[in-house]
Amino acid sequence: MREFLSSRNVSLWCSVINAVCAVAAIISGSWIWFGVSTGLAALCYHNYLKG
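The chain above was modelled as a monomer; its predicted structure follows.
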């Protein structure tokens, strides 16, 4: 399970899911959730690139 969670593809999907959540948050006007989701998407994408 640990190998699965640390794979590049999981990091990419994590960033995609968080980016979708960020878009939904900005549409609904939730600025705090937008900031959290964007930060998490950036972190996951960074891990994908580093992977």
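The chain has three helices and no strands.
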